[in-house]
Amino acid sequence: MSLSGTISNALSGLHAIQTGVDITSQNIANAETVGYTKKTATNKSVTAGGQSAGVATGEISREVNLFLQSQLRSELADYSKLNIQNEFYTNIDQLYGQPGDVNALDTVFNTFGTKLNDLATSPAQFGIRESLISQAQILASHLNDMSHQIQALRQQAETGLSNAVTQANDAMQQIARLNTEIQSVSGTSQASATL
Q1: What is the pTM of this model?
Q2: What is the structure's pLDDT at 40?
Q3: CA pair distance 45, 60, nearest whole angstrom
């Protein structure tokens, strides 16, 4: 082997080592960074005419456990779904009120029913009629307030869905942009693994 071939082999080895050191330093520097994945490089020997022609850096890959990543996504989706359901159920529960409370729907409705029964037993008494009309207005007002608040919850849900669709569309556009960038760089470059 000629002197220039030997120097070329040595330089290719040094280049491969430098790439490995760069990747290792990035892994160490980002060890506590949320979302960062460890990267590894494989080296492969290069031969020409049956003789060693140096070392080349092979594919730089991210070390990701796809099963765990899939499970994490699934569990986060379930958690988010249950969290949103719990929030809406809590809000609706507050609208109905604690059973037996003065402003709870069951109390307002039962009071109206009692006034209605009172009127049925004594239809001629003016005070009972006045009391029934007053309680009917309270019940109607209570139901109207509940209706407005339920509509507000519905609007909040629709706004949340709209925002989620916008976020999903933005994320898909970013993925498409990253795919384009990954295809434009060399498959063995560190930039490809970083993207």
Answers
A1: 0.58
A2: 86
A3: 15
- What distance in Å separates the CA atoms of residue 31 and residue 34, rounded to the nearest whole number? 8
Q: What is the Cα–Cα distance from 124 to 118, expressed in whole angstroms?
A: 11
Q: What was the pLDDT predicted at 194?
A: 67
Compute the distance between CA of residue 121 and CA of residue 87 in angstroms, rounded to an integer: 44
Per-residue model confidence as pLDDT tens digits over 120-165: 998 889 999 999 999 999 999 999 999 999 999 999 989 988 999 9
- Which stretches in the chain have pLDDT values below 50? none
Please say whether the beta carbons of 108 and 142 come within 8 A: yes
Cβ-contact 23, 60 below 8 angstroms: yes
pLDDT at 186: 62
CA–CA gap between residue 89 and residue 96 (Å, rounded): 11
Half-sphere exposure of residue 85: CA atoms within 13 angstroms, side-chain side = 6
State the DSSP string of 51-72: EEEEEEEEEEEE---HHHHHHH
Q: How far apart are CA 88 and CA 19, in angstroms?
A: 53
d(CA 47, CA 37) in angstroms, rounded, equals 32
